[in-house]
Amino acid sequence: MNIVKKIEDGKCSIDELENLLEEKNPIVLYHAMTHIGKEGIRTEEIFKKLNGLSLKREHQDKLLGHYKLGDLAIATMIKLGENEDEISGFKILDEFEKNGFPSF
């Protein structure tokens, strides 16, 4: 089964979703993070990996439009109720960037 279809159909286990956060494919990462946020899946490992992804805000980390992988990781963590001050990638943003976040 196509991994994106599996995510969309809700057929990935939490362990699989945790592992998918290590993917290099931005489409898979997008779908995994979006699913995690929408379903409210909260584990320590997911938060650890999302926090690491929150720092991926360089040109090579482009996801959709002008959004980067780090932007979606930060938005996912906020959606899951994480305090913005605890998110590594959020701490380093300027005020303009902090106000331009995607939401679910």
User: Total number of helical segments?
Assistant: 7
> DSSP strand (E) fraction?
under 5%
Helical residue percent band: 40-55%
Structural class: mainly alpha
Largest sheet: none
Low-pLDDT stretches:
none
In total, how many beta strands?
0
Please give the radius of gyration in angstroms.
Answer: 13 Å
Given the C-alpha coordinates, what overall shape results?
Answer: globular
Order of helices and strands: HHHHHHH
Task: Summarize model confidence as the mean pLDDT.
Answer: 89
Q: Separation of termini?
A: 26 Å
Would you give an account of this structure?
- By secondary structure, this protein is mostly helical.
- About 55% of the residues lie in helices and about 0% in strands.
- The protein contains 7 helices and no strands.
- The chain has helices spanning about 5-10, 15-20, 25-40, 45-55, 70-80, 90, 95-100.
- The longest helix has 14 residues, at about 25-40.
- The protein is globular.
- The mean pLDDT is about 90.
